[in-house]
Amino acid sequence: VSTQSIELMVHVCASAPAKILLHGEHAVVHGATAIAASISLRTHVELTSTDTRMVRLDLDALSIQASFAVSDLLRAIVKSPVVDSPSMTYISQPVLQTLGGENDVVLRPILAMCCLCVGLGSSFQEGLHVKISSDVPAGAGLGSSAAVSVAMSAAFLYSMGAYEIQTDADGVPSPSGLDLINRWAYEIEKIIHVTPSGVDNTVSTFGGIISYRKGAFEHLSPIPLSLLVTNTRVPRRTKQMVQQVGERLKLFPSIVTPIFEAINEISRTFVELLPNSTSETEVSASLSSSQRLTELIRINQGLLCSLGVSHPAIDDIVRISAEHGCAAKLTGGGGGGCVITLLPSELSAKQTEVLQQQLSQNYDCRVVHLDPNGVLIHS
Q: Global pTM?
């Protein structure tokens, strides 16, 4: 896509979902299969052209507002970007780091995309307003940074008139468009996480349920599951937990290796419970085995506890869920973060409300659904 052929839109909005790990935490690092899914919590990004010669950022979820001169962002571009060749080598990271200041970790990936907007697009060269709002709690293991990266990439590419970004009536980009969005989002994630697995941005881009093993992704048949996502309010400690599990593996390989194998079997069994298609008959047949889905959650949490990655707050949420007949497990790295509680189809709305109210006494608790949609373009 040449810069001469790009015609910018004045306003565009895109959204991308959060993600949970249903199964496979920690074992995936050692070669097992993980199951991830998008959920009905979303991050929205709006890009609007202005004539202020400034780039203004409104990050509602983080209560951050900041403004930067367009000329400063243009100085961060070290070589001419090419839209269909995603890379952050176009941008000087030290320059962005200086601009971001004390909020560098949050702002740098967003500023990188802003550089591309003002550098490539005639409409945004005079100024840009970026508004980011989100239902996804930051730092809780739900892929909040990936949701921003995906929605920002989608809005940027769509505003540039990139030829791959064609959408259907529901705002779903074409397969080639999704692929380009995902590749840009992965580049942004590298700014934040250096060596990301690619799971978070892939789930947020394509949506639905995805299995992941050794860098290979497979899109699985969606099923209508409802869950409670409960934030322990304890910051997750993914790096520490991964290191701790690795040390446990070195000390007790004959014990820990079978735990990884069992977690892998849980992922495999979960996939076997999915329908081959999304016809109502097959979905209903699959969900008649909801007790098996519940047991998989319960067993997985027990195995994760044996790896030492739980936390008293996680254990408390699991206990309360069990008292209401529901299975729960940590999602993500553990040591804090979030817990998912599977809501069986036979659980009434009143019973769900009572459980949610009890959990909300000490934690942040929301009802969510698996979202078959990934990134969406809203304008």
A: 0.90
